[in-house]
Design a protein that fits this description.
Elements: H1 3-27, H2 29-42, H3 47-69, H4 71-89, E1 111-118, E2 129-136, E3 141-146, H5 152-159, E4 167-172, E5 175-176, H6 182-186, E6 189-193, H7 203-208, H8 216-225, H9 229-233, H10 252-266, E7 270-274, H11 282-296, E8 300-304, E9 316-321, E10 324-329, H12 331-335, H13 342-355
Parallel strand pairs: 3-8, 3-9, 6-7, 7-8
Antiparallel strand pairs: 1-2, 1-4, 4-5, 9-10
Helix pairs in contact: 1-3, 1-4, 2-3, 8-10, 10-11
């Protein structure tokens, strides 16, 4: 049964329930007075008994009518419970606690994509990555650039194993990530994205979410490295300041620095930065860029960048176009390609936009 048929069925139930309730409310007076009149005529009851019965039944009818008007809400609630139950009972294809998978207390952080094809389950006709071969050496900083929709963020999601590749393998230290215990794999990876997860909790609790057993001094050290300690200390409640739902009590730059502090505290081998500064003003971006440069030292870093000025010092810049790698090299090497290169064109476009 499709959504349209379900909607029609709900409407019929709601309309039928309301009709019955209203009909009973309006029609119950007639039999009351008819039968009550007969009993009065025979002298079996008094007038007060007729009116007592009338008011009791009218009150009952009103309650039934109100219940009938709730039929639509009850139907929606029932469908919502079914949807929740389906989600709770659904077995994930990726079991985070599967014990027979490979688990490692430490990884070097060498990441490699081998002939990876990928499409999202909701869009199987649209191939996002095509025959992707990408190597990210341990401890190296690799930037991913390209036009919107070229597959940059998809690479980050595959490393985190939010999805599995349609074809090919993604390997960490030469081992297919599907062979790793999922929870163990993600313990070695930290992600800072444009769409942040800030809990409705204190600043301290939000930073500590990166490592729940961290001490207060470790939290402060991480915040200091992320250029967050100064603004946190200036607040009346300091690290006990409540962030609000989704961090509404903080500015965009402050939320971003908290996310970086969380990643620093996690102290993971692999750091993924997905458009971490794209929505910030220049001052916030400068502070966060300083924090990121401190954070990236000694880690394998994958940086998805919108502003190309922030990734010029990367060990390697990988340029994507329509799901394929079209150029690789350092900033200076790619600029040397001249006007024929896609990276050169992207840099020129941003320079013109900044000058305008």
């Amino acid at each position: 049964m499709g959504p349209r048929e379900v909607s029609h069925k709900q409407s019929w139930f709601a309309g039928g329930g309301l009709f019955i309730a209203q009909f009973l409310t309006a029609a119950n007076s007639a039999p009351i007075f008819w039968y009550g009149g007969r009993l009065l005529y025979r002298g079996e009851i008094e007038y007060k008994h007729v009116f007592q019965t009338f008011f009791i039944l009218v009150s009952t009818g009103r309650i039934i009518a109100e219940t009938g008007s709730m039929t639509a809400d009850l139907s929606k609630g029932t469908n919502a419970l079914k949807a929740i139950s389906a989600i709770l009972n659904r077995k994930s294809k990726m079991d985070p606690d599967k014990s027979d998978n490979f688990s490692s207390e430490k990884v070097r952080g060498d990441v490699e994509f081998k002939q990876v094809d990928f499409f999202y389950p909701t869009r199987p006709q649209h191939l996002i990555l095509k025959d992707m071969n990408l190597h990210i050496g341990a401890g190296k900083i690799v930037a991913l650039v390209g036009k919107s929709g070229s597959g940059k963020s998809t690479i980050v999601r595959l490393i985190e194993r939010f999805y599995d590749p349609t074809h090919g393998t993604v390997e960490v230290d030469g081992i297919d990530i599907r062979s790793y215990n999922l929870r163990g794999l993600r313990s070695h990876i930290a992600l800072v994205s444009q769409e942040l997860t800030i809990l409705a909790a204190t600043i301290r609790e939000n930073i500590r979410y990166g490592r729940e057993n961290a001490t207060d001094s470790e939290v402060i050290a991480a915040a200091t490295l992320a250029n967050a300690h100064e603004f946190v200390s200036s607040m009346e409640d300091g690290y006990s300041t409540y962030c609000g739902e989704r961090g509404v009590q903080l500015s965009g730059g402050q939320r971003q620095r908290l996310a970086i502090a969380r990643a620093i505290l996690k102290d993971s081998t692999i750091l993924l930065l997905d458009e971490a500064t794209s929505a910030l003003d220049s001052e916030s971006e400068r502070l966060i860029q300083e924090a990121l440069e401190k954070t990236m030292m000694g880690r394998t870093c994958v940086v998805v960048a919108h502003r190309l000025s922030t990734i010029q010092r990367s060990d390697k810049i990988t340029v994507l176009d329509k799901g394929r790698i079209v150029e690789e090299g350092s900033h200076s090497e790619l600029l040397a390609e001249g006007e024929n290169g896609l990276y050169f064109s992207l840099v020129k476009v941003q320079q013109l936009a900044a000058a305008a």
